[in-house]
Every structure is written in C-alpha cells, then in structure tokens.
Amino acid sequence: MIQINNLHKSFGKLDVLRGLELTIDSGKTVAILGPNGSGKTTMIKSILGLVIPQKGEILVNGNSVKNNWTYREEISYLPQIARFPENLKVKELIKMVQDLRKTLSDPEPLISLFGLEKFLDKSLRTLSGGTRQKVNVVLAFMFDSPIIIMDEPTVGLDPIAMIKLKKLIKEEQAKGKTILITTHIMSVVEELVEEIIYILEGKIYFRKSLAELNGTVKKIGLEGVIAEILEEV
Predict the structure, then answer these.
(1) 135 lies in a domain?
(2) How many domains are there within the chain?
(3) CATH at residue 165
(4) Domain span at residue 11?
(5) 205 belongs to a structural domain
(6) Looking at the domain assignment, is residue 113 inside a domain?
(7) HEC readout, 8-75
(8) pLDDT digit of tens for each residue in the chain (233 aa)?
C-alpha cells in the first residue's frame, strides 16, 4: 500500500503539489493521468525519495519514507528517461545495478524477450532511444519487487516491444503486484489499469475505476470521457 497525506512541494514560487491526498491499495494497477506540469512526476519522485516535499507524509506498506531508504528495495522504477554513464556497456550497466541493489534478480529472460543479446557489449552512447528503453525495462523488471512504478514506460518503444511490455505488466499483475503508471497513451490505460487518478494543479481532480467508466468509454473513447468529467467537476 502507498499512502500520501497532505503532500506539498514547491520549486521556487511554483507550487507543484498542493496538499495531495492519495491511497493506493496493494495489488492494484492505477493510472496517474494529467496534463504536463500537473505534478505527476513530482509525486512519483517524492514516493521514490528523489524529491523531498516541504510538507506532508508518504507511507509505503505502513512505513514512513522519511529518513529511510530501505523501503526502496520493495520498488522497481521505470523512468521516462534514464540517465546513465554513456561509456558503460549494457552488460556493465546491468551488473552495476545488480550490485547496487543486492537483491535477487534475473535479467536473462528479459534480455532474450527484447532481443538485447547483440547489444550487451555495446556502450550506451551507441544505442537508439528505443533500445535504451528496452534496457531500462530490463533494469526495472529483473527484480521481483512488490511495487512497480512506471513513468511513460512506452516512450520510444516500437509496436512489437510495446506488446511485449504490456504482456510483461499483465504477468506482474497476476502476481498481485501494486503498479502505478503515468502515460499519455490511452490504449495502455484501457488495457491494463483498474483505476484512473487524474491530477491537475497538484491535486486530485477526480478518481474513477475503469469499470465505472467502461460503458461511456465504448461510446466516445477514454479521451472523451476524461474531457466530459473535467467539464463537470
């Protein structure tokens, strides 16, 4: 379970999170949606301890994340853009992350799934954006973490790789993992998530289950449903 209580974060004079309140139950797959600048990534980075909020509390499985790093061992994170030393070879990067994390990992099936064998001895600077993202998927999913957080996970992926990633996510769902996804790809939301949380100007604007919206989604599409809700709220 992830619980966020009265979370505030500002960057200079810009208020990004404004008293955000959110609880995500264990075993749920949730989409965090909202326009650019709404606070989605800041919220995620606050959960991960990469951003320190000015006010509020974050609990992961009942434990406060403040002044604590061990909870991160329960989380796998797939960022929109991962920054690693460009001179590292792919196999060196994988080994480095394994050594840093020091928990059980098995990258081999994922390397095979995404056809990365021929890239293992290549440096990161030589890789295309799509291949880099496949490497990032391996890094995120090679650990059997109970919580998976993904920020625009399909960026740069070709259609075949996207299908493989969605299959991978479904396999993790079947294991009862808690999964958070931010994305602008509505087909990903419709196919994978149970609930939509829409953030606007640093607060939750609405929260709806996909089952609740399903009838209307079939008529006008998810984008149309979200537009209608925003007009009503």
Answers:
(1) no
(2) 1
(3) 3.40.50.300
(4) 2-81+146-232
(5) yes
(6) no
(7) EEEECCEEEEEEEEEEECCCCEEEEECCCCCCHHHHHHHHHCCCCCCEEEEEECCEECCCCCHHHHHE
(8) 899 999 999 999 899 999 999 999 999 999 999 888 889 999 999 999 999 999 999 999 888 888 888 888 899 999 887 788 899 999 999 999 999 887 778 899 999 999 999 999 999 999 999 999 999 999 999 999 999 999 999 988 999 999 999 999 999 999 999 999 998 888 889 899 999 999 988 999 989 888 888 777 777 888 888 888 777 65
